[in-house]
Write a structure and sequence with these properties.
single chain, about 190 residues, Arc Repressor Mutant, subunit A, three-stranded antiparallel beta sheet, elongated
Length: about 190
């Protein structure tokens, strides 16, 4: 009986390592993997494996996050809905200045993303690319604006429709607390007034 229990623990240990490899390393153009990919690699107990990995990541202030292509998925998605979600690793707490330096983005790139996201939020979730470019050109050199917007799109923070409207894409919805961003901007506005 004990051998069977140890084999199960060993199997979970191996599966947790496998899940970490899938989630930490980029396999496609975008980070992370879909739920159905995790199920295919880890088996039918893939959600339990992801939960174990998430608990282990708490010690290093990381977490397993998931996001849907469609932002309208309810707060308690079913196992079937989770198969279509994108799973990846994010910071668990707030990001400080030292951490930002280690993720490979310049401060002005992150500030530009914050401005773009805040502007799109202020326009009820969609704004023309030319409007966002105009706002960013007030703070960044013109040549950087186009490159930054293209990077934000490539990284999954912003999406762009065929007619040039920008919207918050899956990564913004997963990594950015929109309410907190707006509150920070509003509190900064009060301090400078």
């Amino acid at each position: 009986m004990e051998k069977k229990v140890k084999r199960t623990e060993g199997a979970y240990s191996k599966k947790v390592k496998q899940a970490a490899h899938l989630l930490f390393f980029k396999h496609h153009r975008l980070p992370g993997v879909r739920g159905w990919e995790l199920k295919q690699e880890l088996g039918s107990d893939w959600l339990e494996v992801v939960e174990i990995l998430d608990n282990q990541l708490k010690n290093v202030d990381l977490q397993v996050s998931h996001v849907f292509d469609e932002p309208d998925i309810n707060l308690e998605p079913s196992r079937e809905q989770l198969l279509d979600a994108r799973f990846y690793i994010t910071m668990r707490g707030d990001v400080d200045q030292k951490t930002v330096k280690t993720i490979g983005w310049r401060f002005d790139d992150i500030a530009g993303l914050a401005v773009a996201v805040a502007y799109i939020i202020s326009k009820q979730g969609k704004a023309s690319r030319s409007e966002v470019e105009r706002v960013l050109m007030e703070k960044l050199p013109g040549w950087r604006v186009k490159a930054n917007l293209d990077n934000y799109i490539d990284e999954g923070y912003l999406g762009q429709t065929e007619n040039g409207l920008l919207y918050l894409d899956w990564r913004s919805r997963a990594e950015i607390d929109e309410k907190k961003l707006v509150d920070l901007i509003l509190s900064f506005g009060k301090q400078t007034a």
